[in-house]
Write a structure and sequence with these properties.
Helix 1 packs across helix 2 and helix 3 packs across helix 5. It is built from five helices and ten strands; from the N terminus they run E-E-E-H-E-H-E-H-E-E-E-E-H-E-H. Helix content is 27%, strand content 31%. It folds into two domains: 102 residues, 2-Layer Sandwich (Nucleotidyltransferase, domain 5), CATH 3.30.420.40; 88 residues, Nucleotidyltransferase, domain 5, CATH 3.30.420. Strands 3-2-1-4-5 form a five-stranded mixed sheet, sandwiched between helices. It is of the alpha/beta class and 223 residues long.
């Protein structure tokens, strides 16, 4: 499939294009400029791939959780492009993208290691997700000290902003962490998840951001 993927759930805007087995990607760290940067990044990348919107089979976007403003930007752009070019949309969890990328880049992990993906949710909370190698898991939001303790397995801690909260994690969780990695949710990881067949498509009308919690925070999530 020829796919365009985009994510602005953190301070890093990331765009990727899959042209068959070839992948082209761009990223830029500038949270306050996502709205201005995203469309030019997409245009540049499509030109590099020598690909037009007519040749695309779908639009992939990071549905969240993450920066509320960033999620709205990515979703709005994905919906607009899908409407304009009559394309299906593939919403991908930003936490699942972190987990997928973490498993790809961190090798020699103990047997049955799971990824604990974390993003700073502000208000002294984190967005969290526990993921197996198959990128199956559960997501939520909680104070770091009240994070659910459920997998009795080694943990690879991954994400952005977790360094602000690692000391507050329950001791049972900290004792299981075998490796730590700063990993942002990348558009390329989202492409990989869609290409694996694990993500169902929706119509442009059905595509929505997933905030996990409804309360708008004071300021934006870091990272």
């Amino acid at each position: 499939m020829n796919l365009l993927a985009l994510d602005t759930s953190t301070e890093t805007a990331t765009v990727a294009v899959a042209l068959g087995e070839q992948v082209f990607g761009k990223e830029q760290k500038a949270l306050s400029q996502h709205a201005q940067l995203l469309l030019p990044m997409i245009s540049t990348l499509l030109a590099e791939a020598n690909l037009s919107f007519k040749q695309l089979d779908g639009i992939v976007f990071g549905r969240g959780p993450g920066s509320f403003t960033g999620l709205r930007i990515a979703c709005s752009v994905a919906k607009a492009l899908a409407y304009a070019h009559d394309l299906p949309v593939f919403p991908v969890s930003s936490l699942a993208a972190i987990a997928h990328k973490a498993f790809q880049q961190e090798k020699e992990l103990p047997l049955n290691t799971q990824v604990l993906a974390l993003l700073d949710a502000r208000m002294q909370q984190v967005y969290y997700g526990y993921f197996s190698q198959e990128i199956k898991g559960e997501e939520g939001v909680a104070a770091a000290a009240q994070l659910p303790i459920f997998p009795d397995v080694p943990l690879l801690l991954a994400g952005v902003g977790w360094d602000n909260y690692i000391a507050e994690l329950p001791s049972l969780i900290r004792a299981r962490i075998v490796k730590q990695a700063v990993v942002f949710p990348s558009a390329q990881a989202m492409l990989n998840l869609v290409q694996s067949g694990s993500i169902k498509s929706v119509t442009a009308e059905e595509a929505l951001p997933v905030y996990i919690r409804n309360q708008v925070t004071q300021g934006e999530p870091r990272g």
